[in-house]
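User: Okay, second chain of the day. Same drill as before: sequence in, structure tokens out.
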Amino acid sequence: MAASFTRRHWLQGLAAVGSCTVAPALRAADDVGNAIRIGRVLPYGVPAFASMARQRAQGADACMAHTNASGGIAGQRIVVLDRDDGYDTARAARETQSLLSQDGVFALLGAFGTPTVPAVIEVAERMGAPLVGASSIANDARQPPRRWIFPVRVSAIEEAAATVRHQMTLGAQRFMVLTSREAYGPSGAAAYTSALHRAGRKFGELAFEASDDAKRVAAQLLQARPEVIFISVLPKPFAGVLRAYRGGGGAARIFGLSVIRAEDLRAELGPLAVGIGLSQPVPAPTSPTSALAGEYRAHLARLDPAAQPSFHGLEGYLEARVLVEGLRRAGPRATREQLVRALESFRPLELGGLLVRYGAGDRTGSTFSELVLLGSGRSIVR
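Assistant: Same drill. Structure tokens below.
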């Protein structure tokens, strides 16, 4: 599901070029179409993640459209080929392999998902293709540093650690980690428990499944009497737990990682979402003071005037900005090796006030993390 500008250009190029195979020194431009082809694998068809995938893709597409309208990369336009990974490990591997071997994409952009990112990473490494923007609660993209992989967002462990430090400065003593056993839940819980261990804090842990009795889970929370609950949960099953917990008098402050969409929490929790804190790896997309957010909004409006800015959209935009700058530094008709070296020259790169750093053996990316609270309606309190 590529954006219209990328799909049109791709179909034109495909008609002219025909099928391509990947060579070890594949260059960034088609011989005929003079286009740089980028592959993207996201869970577009999975209800729990489809909206997030669309937002991330739209943010990246806004950057690519602006780049193409500004002359592209030394006159070479960028086209993006999209595949749906179904949030499935085997399918993510197949689709990534197909993009590289059959469609001949030069690099990969913006993979996300706890079960799928490792598969995309494995294929990218095996085929020697740069991947910019491997987003997962697990730390697969950073440890160990991988030559072809360039994560952009802050690691989940550092994201969790920033929230733990914030609550410690407020004097909190009793912590609970609450997690869904499905999807990203266990990996997010591991980030919080790691951060709490590093901070030398004792804490309780409680995991539940979507089919569990919400009142029973809430009763366990009430009995533990935490001051702060760190959540790594799917919003729908969490809604029943929180209603029962608040109904029973539970008053703990609640914080989650950025993988949980604010829109999903609001949809499932209604007024109970107000006051929940979420860490974010990018500035607020509506921020009047962030240059990065302002550029994102302007480029998004040109791509689709009806589109609403979002945190996940801004993250996708940031990943695309990193890739575009790498392509520019690599030069016209660069090889993949040249793109790697160009990305490793970010020591650091400043993008609208946010820093991204790489180097030989360094895959830090961004260390930016910001805690926001959900307000009434669509409002965000920073």
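The chain is about 40% helix and 20% strand.

User: Thanks, on to the next one.
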